[in-house]
Amino acid sequence: MRKTLAPLALILGILACNYPTTSIGGEPTAEVPLALVDASTPVGAEAPPPTLPPTRDPNLPIYTPTPDVPHGQPTLRSDYIEYVVQPYDILTAIAERFGVTLEEVVAANNIIDPNTLEVGQNLLIPPQSPVSLGPDFKIIPDSELVNGPFALFFDVAAFIDSQPGYLKQHREEVDGAMLSGAQIVQRVATEYSVNPKLLLAVLEVQSGWLSDANPRTSRLQYPMGVLDAWRSGLYFQLSWAADNLNKGYYEWKGGLTAGWRTTEGTLIPAASTINPGTAGVQYMFSLLYPEGEWRNIVSDGGFNALYAQYFGYPFDLAVEPLVPPDIAQPAMQLPFEAGVPWVYSGGPHGGWGNSAWAALDFAPRGEMLGCNQSTDWVVAAADGLIVRAENGAVVEDLDGDGYEQTGWTILYMHMASEGRVQAGTRVSAGDRIGHPSCEGGFATASHLHVARRYNGEWIAASGSTAWGSLPFVMDGWISTSSGILYDGILQRDGVSVEACECRDPDNMLQR
Asked: Which of 190, 210, 337, 378 is deepest in the core (most CB within 10 A)?
């Protein structure tokens, strides 16, 4: 079987589903500034919004965050290893996965055309050649990278309107609708579950859109400085930033990476005591700068100084742990009606983009090859409140407080607009909430993409991965992963159903 690299649009189609206890440091004496508080009533909720705990008195000295305990990050390799090419593999992704350059892999294997790979082909992966250790300075707490509890109190539109820069006048068409700069920032933050304050700070570093009313022309089309025609415009540029912030965060948290490679090809081992939030920022900036500039940005007095200038000291708002170690998943059922078989079409993969492998895919009968809206119903997997229903997404809040940044939430993706449940609706497990389709993100066939979050953090779907031991469980079916994207098994009472893009009865489930 021969595999040829596809154009970006087709690659995005294959990866369809990836797109579309509080501890506060310092002395608790001062309330959060009112400018950061959004006291609006949550969707469909009867309770008032939660109250922020007090933060450090600004007259007290800023404390130094405690270094994280190293938790299993791999060491850099000094030997050659072998890798067997899997379906959907591309050479650039393989090189990145193993911390080497594309050129190094090509040279080690005498590859003539890097745009073609053969499934089953053996590749020799060269050793990694690092330089000195990266900074151990902690830039941001995990809860300020994730679109979590404290993001509730930040009014994106009001903040942007208070700044003199270009962002407040920017308008751009996204999915056929004209959106303001604030709407785009909020949409990206919501989709990727990345804190909007972090996105704004990164945008300011890269383009000055908060402070400069007339940014240079090159930054109008590519405000993040990612010169890629497929990613022109604020929405796609911010989506790139959010996706790579997530990639660095979740791969570090999962112990899947040992460092970063900067733009000139320098491999920098990451300090083992940084936290995942800092890792996310370090990784994203490594894609934009050579080593010297990168070290300046991610060290004390770099990016963190700009962030503090706009939003205050980030560790004052640390929610630790963001996901308690003893947390348990609420009871959930399979998200389809009794007696209706569905195909288990995709094992663990990104909840949105390069986040933790938080999602599973299910496809309705007989419609694997097309994007026609299915007549089969998706149903709620648990009792809860629908807090968002737009752009192909339905989000259910399981604690019912009306916020998707707190507690358990479920994302149902690629939900057709016709027949879709409305935000503000309270549902019980088994209630109809819509039909699977290709709406939202990129999809090559009608299906349902379902993922979990807790306090805004994507929760890996498989307990057998490095991301944790909280497998996705529905009707007693337990999700496991082979370690290969989209490849997984659901198991219950000794019965196994393997994920497959096929119509084989052995790959179907029903309640």
From this structure: 378
8-state DSSP, 210: T
CA distance 338 to 146: 36
Q: Which of 126, 140, 131, 68 is nearest to 269 (CA)?
A: 131
For the domain made up of 81-125, the CATH class stated in words is alpha beta
Domain coordinates in residue numbering, the chain: 28-67+133-317, 81-125, 342-509
What single-letter amino acid sits at 335? Answer: P
The rounded distance, in Å, linking the Cα atoms of 27 and 62 is 10
SS3 358: coil
d(CA 348, CA 460): 8
Kindly report, residue by residue over 470-490, the tens digit of the pLDDT: 899 999 999 999 888 899 999
pLDDT of residue 3: 27
Which residue is associated with the tokens 């025609």?
229
DSSP string for 129-173: -B-SPPP----S-HHHHBT-GGGGG--HHHHHHTS-SGGGG-EEE
Residues of the chain with pLDDT under 70: 1-42, 44-56, 58, 71-76, 129-131, 366-369, 463-468
Q: Please choose, from the candidates 76, 112, 77, 114, the residue with its C-alpha nearest in 3D space to the C-alpha of residue 92.
A: 114
pTM of the model: 0.83
Q: Are 162 and 176 in contact (CB under 8 A)?
A: no
What is the distance of C-alpha 170 from the center of its chain?
Answer: 25
CA–CA distance, 251 with 134 (Å, rounded to integer): 16
What are 72's two structure tokens?
């299993």
* Cα 350 from Cα 486, distance rounded (Å): 9
Determine the Cα–Cα distance for residues 7 and 318; give it in Å rounded to an integer.
42
CA distance 302 to 318: 20
* Inter-residue contact 347 to 487 (CB < 8 Å): yes
Report the distance separating Cα 11 and Cα 88, nearest Å: 8
Is the CB of residue 168 less than 8 Å from the CB of residue 209?
no
Alpha-carbon distance of 367 to 369, in angstroms, equals 6
Q: Which residues of 466-502 are buried (b: 16+ CB within 10 A; e: fewer)?
A: bbbebbbbbeebebbbbeebbbbbbbeeeeebbbbbe
- Residue 500 identity: C
Is CATH 2.70.70.10 correct for 342-509? yes
SS3 125: strand
Query: What would the DSSP string read from start to end of 425-467?
Result: -EE-TT-EEE-BBS-SS--SS-BEEEEEEETTEEE-S-TTSTT
